[in-house]
Design goal:
With 298 residues, this protein is mainly α. The chain contains 17 helices and no strands. 67% of the residues lie in helices and 0% in strands.
Length: 298
């Protein structure tokens, strides 16, 4: 793995730490409920989908990719019946600073100093076939450009870029939403998750969908007997490395020094971010922050 790809992989994990807790943030969920959404249901994806505007649910499901389309459709109906996307994004933005201060006191000051290089990375890459990234990048930026919120939003754009790149690769390999959930089990500790199926089931898939996905993976040589095969493990690790390679130009534009500073700022708070997710969502959620050490030849 090149130095650039290795630093990109490191920044990807740090970015998940910095952003992922927002999916279950109690303050944001309360604000979302106050907009009229019953019990704040669906915040876990609504704050991301809102960036797309009022698109067809099929388009939103295509962009989200790994989440069952029926979940996307139901969440969108809930918030479209109650509020508008700008209000949802306002709830998100209002929750960022207080949430960071609760999870990692003192982090915000250092994060604000990295806003400019993070946006430089965001603005350096093209939007083609990157719908979530493009949607987030097009949103208005904070008037206070060198703020923790500004830096957090830029980091979120880079996180969405990595996600879009990963989905593009998954699509090129003809993997559907359930298959990618099953294969992601390669990246986590199965003893912690209890099953290779947990991630795919957490995205809204039932027994029938899971069984059909295992059958498709077996035909592709990526599974055997309802479990990921050795070839499937090699394939998934290579897919991760290819994702890093596709995302590296953005972090190259951020610059190696600023990227290392970003990682060094976030990494000491990893356990605190995971603890926040455990406390608000429960164990196992947000598998991207729980990735196990990669094999040296990955």
């Amino acid at each position: 793995m090149s130095d650039s790809a290795a630093l990109t992989a490191r920044a990807g994990v740090a970015g998940h730490d910095l952003v992922g807790w927002m999916m279950w943030d109690p303050r944001a969920i309360a604000g979302y409920q106050a907009l009229g959404v019953p019990d704040g249901i669906g915040w876990i994806v609504a704050w991301r989908l809102a960036s797309l505007g009022d698109v067809n649910p099929g388009v939103a499901a295509a962009a989200a990719y790994s989440i069952n389309p029926s979940v996307i459709r139901n969440v969108m109906k809930l918030y479209q019946d109650a509020t508008d996307v700008d209000s949802i994004l306002g709830v998100r933005d209002a929750a960022v600073q207080p949430g960071l201060d609760e999870i990692a006191p003192g982090l915000s000051g250092g994060l604000a100093e990295l806003a400019a290089p993070l946006w430089r990375g965001v603005d350096a890459v093209h939007f083609g076939a990157r719908p979530m990234f493009a949607a987030h990048r097009e949103l208005p930026r904070p008037e206070e450009t060198n703020s923790a919120l500004s830096a957090w939003l830029a980091a979120n754009c880079l996180r969405e870029l990595r996600g879009d790149n990963h989905w593009a690769l998954c699509a090129s390999e003809d993997l559907d939403d359930v298959e990618v959930g099953l294969l992601h089990s390669v990246m986590v500790d199965i003893e912690e998750y209890g099953s290779e199926e947990w991630i795919a089931r957490s995205r809204g898939n039932d027994d029938e969908a899971i069984a059909a996905a295992w059958a498709r993976l077996e035909v592709k040589g990526l599974a055997s007997g309802g479990a990921v095969s050795d070839e499937g493990r090699r394939f998934r690790l290579d897919l991760e490395a290819r994702t890093d390679a596709l995302t590296a130009p953005a972090w190259d534009a951020v610059g190696a020094e600023a990227t290392r500073a970003f990682c060094e700022l976030i990494e000491p708070h990893h356990d605190a971010f995971v603890a926040r997710i455990d406390a608000t969502a429960g164990p196992r959620w947000m598998p991207a922050v729980r990735v196990k050490a990669r094999q040296p030849d990955a």
